[in-house]
Amino acid sequence: MGFNLLSASLRVLSKIIFFGFLLLFPLMSFASPGLVSIQFSRQGDTTRMTTTLTQPTACHVFTLSHPQRIVLDFDRTHLKAKNLKSMLQRARVLAPAITNIRVGYPRNKVLRIVLDLDRSVRYRFIMPAQSREAVLELMSTSKIVQTPAQTTTTKHTIVVVIDPGHGGKDPGAIGLYGTREKNVVLAISKALANVINQTPNMRAVLTRQGDYFVPLRGRLRLARRGKADLFVAVHADSWLNRRATGASVYALSQHGATSEAARWLAGRENISELAGVNLRELDDQSYLLRSVLIDLEQTATIRDSLHLGRSLLAELDEVTDLRYRHVEQAPFMVLKSPDIPSVLIETGFLSNRAEELRLRDPAYQGKIARAIFAGLQRYIKQYPSV
Q1: Mean local confidence (pLDDT), 302-326
Q2: Measured between alpha carbons, how far is 94 from 102 in angstroms, rounded to an integer?
C-alpha cells in the first residue's frame, strides 16, 4: 500500500515538473538577448571587435560622418557586459582610430554601440546566422566604404533650448545706465528663438519667456523635458575693470563634469535617463558600470560643446569684439547636462559704458541673435549628426 502511494505521488510530481517546464520554456526561449562581452584583438593592420551575446539576434551596422562613426544596433538586446572599462583601455591601444566608445538605447529594446573615430576606416561586419558572436573588423583606409545594407540618417527637427540668464528677483549684472542683464538677455533670446522658429527642421524652446526666476536645476530639467539637441545659455558680463569688452563662449570644464557625474551616481532621485539609456534598468547596477557610461557620454558631450562654441565664436567675431578667441571652460551649473551639448554665451560687458549702450539697443540685440543663429547653423552643417 505504501509503495503504491509513493509511486502515485512520484507520477503526480513528475507531471507537475513536466508541465511546469512547458510553461517556463517559452519564457526561457524568448528572453531578450544580453550582450555579455566586448573584446578587441589585432592582427596586422586589422583590429577585430568581437561582441558575444547570450543568444542570436539581428544587428544593423551603418556609418555616420562629421565626425566619423560606426554604429551597431542590436535588436531586442540589453547590456550585460561588465568589462567596459578594460574594453576601453584595450580598444585605445589596439585601435588608434577609435577615440571613444558609447553605449545607449536609441529606441525601445535596441542596444546601440557607437565607435567614435578620428579618421576614415574600412570595415567588414561578420555575423553568421544563429551565431552568438558578431565580429567587426576595422582596416585603415583613405575612405569609408559603405555597403548596400547600410542605412542613412534621416533629418529630424533640431531642438535648441535657449536659456536667458537670471530673471525675476535675480536681475543679474546692472550697467552704469541701469540696464539690467535679465532684460537684455531675454530680448536677445527671444530674437534668436524667432529666427530659429522660422527655419525648417529647427525649433526653439525658451526656459523663460518673461521676467520671472527659474532655478538653475529647473533650467536643466526644462532642457531635458524639451528634448534638447543643443542648449544655449545667454548672459551679459560685468567686471570691476570698466574697460573690459567683448563676447565670450564657455563650455563645461572637466571638473564640472566630474562633480555632476558624482551627483548622478549618488542620488536615486536624480534623472535616470542618459542619452536613451535608462540607468535604472541596467542588469548590472554596479557603480563602475554606471560611472563608465556617464563618463563616456560626458566626454563626447564636452567635445561637441567645444565644437559648438568655436562655431559661435567665429560668427560673433563678425559683429562684435571677442573677449577670448577660444572657448573657455568653467563648471557653470546650466552646462552640466551629461548628454546635451551646452554652451554659455557672455554677449558683452554691461560694466563698460559703450558696450552697455550697444547691448540695450534692439538693433544690436538682433545682430547678436543672428550671429548666434549663424553659429548654430555652422555647427549643424559641419556636424550634421546633431
Answers
A1: 92
A2: 17
Cell of 246: 567683448
Nearest alpha-carbon partner for 102 in 304, 269, 268 = 304
Residue 39 has pLDDT above 80, yes or no: yes
Beta-bridge partner residues of 42: 47
**In the predicted structure, residue 386 carries a pLDDT above the cut 70:** no
226 φ, ψ to 5°? -80, 5
Beta bridge partners of 50: 39, 135
Rounded Cα–Cα distance for residues 113 and 119 (Å) = 18
Share of the chain above pLDDT 70, in %: 73
Residue at grid coordinates 551565431: 131
For the beta sheet containing 98-107, the strands, ordered from the edge strand earlier in sequence to the opposite edge, are: 59-64, 69-75, 110-117, 98-107
Give the model confidence (pLDDT) of 6-28 as tens digits.
455 545 545 544 445 444 444 44
* pLDDT score, position 291: 58
- Whether the CB-CB separation of 237 and 173 falls below 8 Å is answered with yes
pTM of the model: 0.57
Whether pLDDT at 337 is above 50: yes
CB environment 7-28: b (16+ within 10 A), e (fewer)? eeeeeeeeeeeeeeeeeeeeee
Is the pLDDT at 239 greater than 80? The verdict is yes
